[in-house]
Automatic annotation (TrEMBL):
Signal peptide: none annotated. It comes from the Bacteria. PANTHER family: CELL SURFACE PROTEIN (PTHR34512), OUTER MEMBRANE PROTEIN ASSEMBLY FACTOR BAMB (PTHR34512:SF30). This is Pyrrolo-quinoline quinone repeat domain-containing protein. It comes from Dictyobacter vulcani. InterPro entries: PQQ_b-propeller_rpt, PQQ_rpt_dom, Quinoprotein_ADH-like_sf, WD40/YVTN_repeat-like_dom_sf.
Length: 379
C-alpha cells in the first residue's frame, strides 16, 4: 500500500528539560554573567559561561514523512548555525531541508521573529558557519538583507554568494570561485575577483586593514595548489598570495596577518606585503584561525597554545591530545578566559573554559546531547 506523503513543516520547539551537568574545577566569579551560545544536532544552546549550566535551548525539526521505495537515505534535517548576538538579540540561521533566519531574545530564548532565507550552515563544525552580520538595523545572512526589527526582506543579491565579512559599509562575499564586494545599503556589486584555476574558497573570508583575506583548496590531484589570497578592498586587485597545501585560517593583529595551515605551521606575515615575520612549526596541523588579545596569540593545534604575537615564542601550551580524527573549534576569549571545544572522532564534544594567562582549566564539560558542536559565541 502506497504511503501518502504528509505536508512538511519546519517546527521550532523547546528542548527536553534534561541536560547533563558539567565538571567544574574552579567556577568563574559569581559576578561573571557572560553567556555562551553553541549548536548541535538541530539544537541551539545558551549556557552559562561561568560553569556551563544550561540557560535555555531551542530545537528545530521537520514534520511530515518522506516515503521512498526500497531503501533510501535518512530524511532531511535542520541544523542551527553560529549566532550573532547584538543588542540583546541572537540572530541565527537554521538550514538543511530549507533555510530560515531566527531572531531570539538572547536572555531567555523567546522568539522575536523568523523568516525563510537562503542562508546556509556549514557541514563542518570546525570550518565554521556563515555567521549573520548585523549593521545599521540590518542583518545580512546568506545573500539576503533583512530588517532586524521583523525580518522583512530589504534586498537580495542574485549573485551565488554568502556574506562573510562587513567592513566600513561594504559587504564581502564568497561564491564558489569568486569573491565579491557589495554595497551594504543596496547590494550593488562594487567589484568581483575571479579566483585563478577555479579553485574553491575554503574557511572564512575576513576583511580588515583595507584588505580582504581568503583561502582556497588544493585540487584532489594536487595539480592546483591552494593558499591564501589577499585583495585590495577598494578595487579587488591582488595584493599578495602564499601557496600552501591546506589553508587553515587567518587573523589580524596590528600590522600582522597570522596564517595557519595544514603544513604544520603558523606564520606571522606583514599584512601589507606578505613578508614573513616569524614562523612557528608544530607537530600537528593547525586547522583553524588564531585569536589575539593583549599581545598574545591563541590557537588550537593539539590543544591551546599561547604565543607572543610579536615573536612567536610559546608562553604556555595545554595538550589535549591530537589525531586525525580530533578537531578543535577556534578559541574565543572574553575577559581573560578562553572558551573552545574539542571534538572527538565519534562526535563527542567537550567544552573548556581556561585561564588565558596560565592555561589552567576553570571548568570542562561534555554531554550526550553535544555532538559535533559548532564554534562558540560568548557574550
Amino acid at each position: 500500500m502506497q504511503q501518502t506523503q504528509q505536508p512538511h513543516s519546519v517546527v521550532l520547539s523547546n528542548c527536553p528539560e534534561h541536560f547533563s551537568s558539567f565538571s567544574v574545577t574552579t567556577p568563574l566569579p559569581a559576578s561573571d554573567t557572560h553567556v555562551m551560545y553553541t549548536a548541535s544536532s538541530g539544537n541551539l544552546y545558551a549556557l552559562s559561561a561561568r560553569n556551563g549550566a544550561l540557560l535555555w535551548c531551542k530545537k528545530v525539526s521537520i514534520t511530515g514523512n518522506f516515503p521512498c521505495p526500497g531503501s533510501c537515505p535518512a530524511g532531511p534535517f535542520m541544523n542551527f548555525g553560529e549566532p550573532a548576538v547584538v543588542g540583546g538579540v541572537a540572530y541565527v540561521c537554521a538550514s538543511g531541508y530549507q533555510g530560515y533566519m531566527y531572531a531570539f531574545r538572547a536572555r531567555d530564548g523567546s522568539l522575536l521573529w523568523s523568516t525563510k532565507s537562503n542562508c546556509a550552515t556549514a557541514p563542518d563544525p570546525v570550518m565554521g558557519n556563515d555567521v549573520p552580520l548585523v549593521y545599521h538595523n540590518v542583518v545580512y545572512a546568506g545573500s539576503d538583507a533583512l530588517r532586524t526589527q521583523d525580518g522583512k526582506l530589504l534586498w537580495s543579491t542574485p549573485a551565488d554568494t554568502a556574506f562573510q565579512a562587513l567592513d566600513d559599509g561594504v559587504l564581502y562575499a564568497a561564491g564558489e570561485v569568486k569573491v565579491y564586494a557589495l554595497n551594504a545599503k543596496d547590494g550593488a556589486i562594487r567589484w568581483h575577483y575571479q579566483i585563478p584555476n577555479f579553485a574553491p574558497v575554503t574557511a572564512k573570508l575576513i576583511a580588515g586593514n583595507k584588505r580582504v583575506y581568503f583561502g582556497t583548496e588544493s585540487s584532489a590531484d594536487t595539480t592546483v595548489q591552494g593558499g591564501l589570497y589577499v585583495l585590495n578592498s577598494a578595487n579587488g586587485s591582488l595584493s599578495w598570495k602564499v601557496a600552501m597545501s591546506y589553508y587553515g585560517g587567518v587573523s589580524l593583529y596590528k600590522d600582522l596577518a597570522y596564517v595557519s595551515s595544514g603544513d604544520h605551521s603558523l606564520d606571522a606575515r606583514q599584512a601589507n606585503s606578505g613578508a614573513l615575520r616569524w614562523r612557528y612549526k608544530s607537530a600537528s596541523s593547525a586547522y583553524n584561525a588564531a585569536t589575539s588579545a593583549n599581545g598574545v596569540l591563541y590557537i588550537n593545534i593539539d590543544g591551546p597554545y599561547a604565543l607572543n604575537a610579536a615573536t612567536g615564542k610559546v608562553i604556555w601550551h595545554q595538550s589535549l591530545g591530537a589525531s586525525q580524527s580530533v578537531e578543535f573549534t577556534p578559541i574565543t576569549i572574553v575577559d581573560n578566559v578562553l572558551y573552545f571545544a574539542r571534538i572527538g572522532g565519534d562526535g563527542k564534544s567537550t567544552i573548556y573554559a581556561m585561564n588565558a594567562h596560565t592555561g589552567a582549566i576553570y571548568w570542562q564539560g561534555s554531554a550526550p546531547e553535544l555532538q559535533y558542536i559548532i564554534p562558540l559565541t560568548v557574550i
